Amino acid sequence: MSDELREVAPSVAKDIYLQQRWDDLSEATLKSHRYRIEAFVEWLEEQGISNMAEVDGLTIHNYRVHRREEDGLKKVSLQGQISTVRQFLRVLASVNAVDSDVAEKILLPTVRKGEDVNEDRLETGRAQKALEYLEQYQYASRPHVEMLLIWRLSARRGGIRSFDLRDFDDSGDTPVLEFRHRPETGTPLKNGKWSERDCAIKNESLAQTLRDYINGPRQKVRDDHDRTPLLTTKYGRVSLGTIKQDMYRVTRPCMYGIECPHDRDPNICEATQHDKASTCPSSRSPHMIRTGSLTAHLDAGTPKAVLSDRADATEKTLDRHYDQASKREQMIRREEFIAEDL
């Protein structure tokens, strides 16, 4: 350890890093970095390390092993965690809190092509069964509307959370939902101003469900910025976590009458509890619903250029992360465009 290094506690180092990166990172990325650094700092403190100058290459190696073997992180998640730790140490080296060599010697886990793709998605058949159940038994409820918006629009949960009442334009022949980036009042879109777009609601069932939700179950509240959100709880604008839990609950097979594929008894299954839905192996997050929606659109022949604009995702991203079709399914898509008599 160099005598010139300052004595900085891990918790203080975390604050230094977040303050340094405040202007560089988007709100969502900064939040992700905060979680990753907090996990690292907590582990350091558990190891009895009270001064960041004590951190060396062996420390990082041990943390990497801990995250892989004890926390069970997959390779792609581990790569993200260690990459953020490396950035953290680089910032600390710039203020003489750690040796500058430590960060530069960190080797990131190698992720082979395809290993960074999450292949879990909500299949079309299951999405339709879930929506049929909601249509019959929870019509125009907030979870019903959330599921419809994510599935029909291939939208992110942050996008549907951002909607205000004014963003539902029902004045013309075709209703429109307007995605708008408003970071200063708590609803940023993933790609900033580039994510702004208008989506026509040609599905009359979705349009009418929105109207019935607004005129019925929707809580008539304002959020902390005096805006009128579309999706609400009694406390104000719905949170990202609440949307996620709502989707875990409505995608459990037992909820819409399918026999449990995991041989569990719904009467005693932990996943049937209100706050334990995510423990069901068949439940799906908003991201998995979006993935299923995008795959369904691609299977239906929607051109990638059109889907890219509507869903706020580049064609390269669609290919890499969202197109979960099998090689045979991709073949079938191509066939109608291939001339047979050349």
UniProtKB/TrEMBL annotation:
Keyword match Hydrolase: no
Q: Which UniProt keywords apply?
A: DNA recombination, DNA-binding
Provide a Gene Ontology MF annotation, just one.
Answer: DNA binding
**Domain of life here?**
Archaea
Membrane spanning segments where? Answer: none
A Pfam family it matches: Phage_int_SAM_1
For biological process, the GO terms are:
DNA recombination
Residue ranges constituting the Core-binding (CB) domain according to the UniProt record: 8-93
Q: What is this protein's record name?
A: Site-specific integrase
Traced from the root, the source organism's taxonomic lineage reads: Archaea, Methanobacteriati, Methanobacteriota, Stenosarchaea group, Halobacteria
